[in-house]
Amino acid sequence: MRLPPRWVRRTVIAPAVVLSAFTLITTLPVWLIVATALTALIPGYLRLPRVLWMVTFYLVWNSAALVCLFVLWVASGLGWKVRSPAFQRAHYVLTGWFLHLLFLQARWVLRLQIDVEGDVAGASLTGRPVVVASRHAGPGDSLILIHALTNWFDREPRIVLKDTLQWDPAVDVMLNRLPNRFIAPAPFGGDRPGRATSLTEQVGNLAVGLDANDAFVIFPEGGNFSPERRRRRIDGLRREGRAAMAARAEAMRHVMAPRPGGILAALDAAPDAGVVFLAHTGLDRMITVRDIWRELPMDKRIVMHGWHVQPAEIPAGREDRIDWLYGWWERVDGWIGARATPQDA
After folding, report:
1. pLDDT of residue 50
2. Following CA atoms 284, 287, 290, 292 in sequence, which dihedral angle do they give, to the nearest 10 degrees?
3. Is residue 189's pLDDT more than 50?
4. Domain-located, residue 343
5. To 10 degrees, the CA torsion angle through 332, 287, 9, 206?
6. Which residue of 90, 104, 148, 163 shows the fewest CB atoms closer than 10 Å?
7. What is the spatial distance between Cα 91 and Cα 178, in angstroms, rounded to a whole number?
8. Please, are residues 145 and 334 in contact by the beta-carbon 8 Å criterion?
9. Is 202 a member of any domain?
10. In Å, how far are 16, 157, 216 from 132, measured between CA atoms?
């Protein structure tokens, strides 16, 4: 759906979320009784009550975040100092608190377990910024990654995100106050007509000035993995005359061919940054809304694995960097494939 303008999101959608949270909370006993009565008809252990509880919690969580953000806005002089270092840090701390609460509930209600392997946040790159290039597959994987970076590894992430995530009021307000970039992905091979600044330039500008505890987060695939998107990406490479890249992309079964422009722009803007390549499994089969409903309650174990690259190990030339990126993406694909279930293969 087309994203509405900011004033609509602030004056219509955000108040509607707060009103929905209030309405659901005041009528929750009735809904719980109905959900419990119907639960025997729905497969999955207490599926309806658990989903109802998570929906209620998410609306209340979102509303509480909006209230806290409003308080910070007032305290900053009605937004006058909201971009100052002190208030930027306050927003990162607030983000960490709310993500911690969200995943506490997910662990309890949905029995969601997150395990970390390897060097997810660049522990071997302590004291310098990192560019985190992550696989993109399944609902909420970006939130899981930001939760890990913020709460477990004390990094301050800068994120390149799809603009449609601004439908969520708390995400919209919080992340627009921090150094992040919401973008409308262009068709494969170029920018949208009429755009004043290219996507590559926007990403490069966001990576300028990274400091020692910053993590620049980008999803080189440009969207959540699906078989149809993977096929279109391969077809796009062939139309561009990149037959060798198309062949390599076709050999990768669990990821889409990466778009190199964004990550190369980030590396150019932050030459002292190391790189972390991130893979994860556990949400692979949750592509459509029907898939998500089928998989609930989740009872999922999500495994995140990271590999770090020191700045000196990053090739210098553009074509060499593209080849290097594809090589790492093939490694990510191999790691996922080694853990794929028969249904995923």
Report:
1. 83
2. 50
3. no
4. no
5. 10
6. 104
7. 7
8. no
9. yes
10. 35, 9, 6
